[in-house]
Amino acid sequence: MRFFLELSFLGTHYKGWQIQPNAKSVQEEIESAMSLLLLEPIKIMGAGRTDTGVHAQKMYAHFDTNHPLPNNFKHRLNAFLPKDIAIKNILPVKEDAHARFHATSRTYKYFVHQEKFPFYDQTSSLIREPLDFLAMNRACEILFKHKDFTSFSRLHTDVKTNFCSIYSAKWFKLEDPTQSQPPRWVFEISADRFLRNMVRAIVGTLLLVGKGNLSLEGFEEIILKKNRNLAGASVAAKGLSLTHIQYPKDLFLDV
């Protein structure tokens, strides 16, 4: 039987999603807890590989088991997991459903605040310089004209192609109606797939536009040159969250 886990996590204390030697990972924490509870070795496959310090408000992973899940399994699993990992749903799916390969789109958000506020510290980046968000949104529109995002990819990766289809990209202001906390600016981007470090590199380059250090023409030239060294520095991981993954509805079983 195959299931999808719908989960969220704070990535602050993890070396990313994927299991790696001598490092704490989200995948390993979940696999260990599930194997202990189900009394069988459980391996999970995530929808993607988040980097060190990156968060997920909504992430999916699939796993197989030889036994029916107990009625209270989600509650027991959450009790075993660390407080910074939460299982939202466990969903039965078709036997060939794949959390990574069947995802049709992914959405990330990058959070920025411009006034020091301790409660934002783990999930948002403080940028004090004035930013021209109108210019940054004009630069976002340039992204839709291109498919090859080599300039925003981590160097020396093992991917076969650097082509991605970006469906939406924009900055918007997130304000607290009670005005008890300072506003944040959010960069939201959706695509069929993302390259390693791609969102953080795009944000870093958009910030150059927002600070007046890079023109719109210069932004597009960076994309056309296909050279990572020309793009802006990657922004801090803590401001980035995976927020949504879309799947075909027919992957999920009605129970």
Please characterize this protein's 3D structure:
The chain has 255 residues and is α+β, with helices and mostly antiparallel strands. It has two domains: 2-102, Alpha-Beta Plaits; 105-243, Alpha-Beta Plaits (2-Layer Sandwich). The chain is 22% helix and 25% strand. The protein has helices at 26-38, 73-80, 133-143, 198-210, 216-225, and strands at residues 2-9, 44-46, 55-64, 85-93, 105-113, 125-126, 166-174, 184-191, 240-246. Strand 2 (44-46) and strand 3 form a beta hairpin. Helix 3 packs across helix 4 and helix 3 (133-143) packs parallel to helix 5. The longest helix is centred in the N-terminal third of the chain and has 13 residues, at 26-38. The two termini are 13 Å apart.
Cα separation of the termini: 13 Å
Shape: globular
Radius of gyration: 19 Å
CATH topology value of the largest domain: Alpha-Beta Plaits
Q: β content, as a range?
A: 25-35%
CATH class annotation of the largest domain: Alpha Beta
Number of H- or I-type helical stretches: 5
Low confidence ranges: none
Give the tally of structural domains: 2
The total count of strands amounts to 9
The CATH superfamily of the largest domain appears as Pseudouridine synthase I, catalytic domain, C-terminal subdomain
CATH architecture of the largest domain: 2-Layer Sandwich
Average predicted local confidence, pLDDT: 96
Kindly state the percentage of residues in helix: 10-25%
- Largest sheet entry: 9 strands, mixed
Order of helices and strands: EHEEHEEEHEEHHE
Structural class call reads alpha+beta
